Amino acid sequence: MNRSKSSLIFTIVGVMIALTTACGTGGTLPATPTPIPTLIVQVLPSLTPTLLPTATATATATATATATVLPSRTAVPTTTMTPTPSSKDMLTAAFAKALANLKTYRVQVPQENRRIAVQLPDRFLQEGDPGALKIGAAMWMPYGVFRGPGNAPFFDRANLNWYKDQFAQAPQVILLGPGTAEGVPCIGYTANFTLTREVQSKTPGAAPELVQAPLPVKIWFATADGFPRLVEMPPPVSLTIRFFDFNSNIQITPP
After folding, report:
1. Residue 208 counted as domain residue
2. What is the CATH number of the domain that holds 204?
3. In a structure prediction context, what are the per-residue pLDDT tens digits for the chain, which is 255 residues long?
4. Is the peptide bond before 171 cis (omega within 30 degrees of 0)?
5. What's the domain count of the chain?
6. Torsion-angle region of residue 194: left (phi > 0), alpha (psi -120 to 50) or beta?
7. 109: part of which helix (H) or strand (E)?
8. How many CA atoms lie within 13 A of 112 on its CB side?
9. H-assigned helices in 105-227
10. Is residue 29 part of a domain?
11. Sequence-distant (≥ 6) Cβ neighbours of residue 243 within 8 angstroms
12. Spatial distance between the Cα atoms of 122 and 106, rounded to a whole number of angstroms
């Protein structure tokens, strides 16, 4: 069957060739056939769908309200203002230091020609003639003659505890600053004591009047050992009390 189809094709082809030849050798040329427009098919490129890049889901950072931590303030150390000790406080401390280290001493009062030995806290012996003795509240004046309870101003003026109490009662103490007493470097203080004096009344036969007046008294403590060296009392008392023989061998006993 394939062979029959091939023969038929060749026969058709041959007839076509013969007709062509015959037309070309004579006779009128047939009109030029209108060319059949060639259908040009423009193959458009296939539309390849362009895939847009997948939007990467960017995790939007949620703005977390982070509390801004301010740097901690360095605590400024509180400056403790140490109060400057008053002159009275300084004098009180000077008495405390002296009395803590003193057991015995002597005083001399040139204006009264007195020399008194002291055994703290409350024994006083006026040395020389006439002698006198005071132990606590009991007194022997002259020495060996019991007088009973009593007091004598010159024994007070020899008593360091008495000076301490008098300065404590003063409304104001003034620091005198550095000085020298009995050739020893010292620091001095002054304050008004209350001086009580008897003044004769102007009325004949009337009892004397007691008059009080301020008496500025100075006391000097040695800067080296803290012991008192000198007490000065101005007029009308006009006395100088010198302290010496600190912690010497002094024994005061009743007669």
Report:
1. yes
2. 2.50.20
3. 444 444 444 444 443 444 344 444 444 444 444 444 444 444 444 444 444 444 444 444 444 444 555 555 655 556 556 667 899 999 999 999 999 999 999 999 999 999 999 999 999 999 988 899 999 999 999 998 999 898 889 999 999 999 999 999 999 999 999 999 989 999 999 999 998 887 887 888 888 888 889 999 999 999 999 999 999 999 999 999 999 999 999 999 999
4. no
5. 1
6. beta
7. strand 104-109
8. 23
9. 153-156, 160-169
10. no
11. 105, 106, 107, 160, 227, 228, 229, 230, 231
12. 13
Q: Is 187 left (phi over 0), alpha (psi -120 to 50) or beta?
A: beta
Q: What angle do CA 252, 99, 167 make, to 5 degrees?
A: 110
Tokens read off for 53 = 């890049």
Q: Six-digit token pair at 212?
A: 């009080």
Alpha helices in 1-136 (DSSP H): 2-25, 87-101
Instruction: Tell me how far apart the alpha carbons of residues 65 and 67 are, in angstroms, rounded to a whole number.
Output: 6
| 25 found inside a domain | no
Nearest to 194 by CA among 155, 233, 151: 233
Residue 15 in any domain: the answer is no
Question: What is the total residue count of the chain?
Answer: 255
Tell me whether strands 146-149 and 138-140 are parallel, antiparallel or unpaired.
antiparallel
Q: What angle do CA 17, 19, 24 make, to 5 degrees?
A: 95
Distance CA 50, CA 52 (A): 6
Q: Output the CA–CA distances (angstroms, integers) from residue 127 to 142, 152, 249, in the order listed.
A: 11, 15, 15
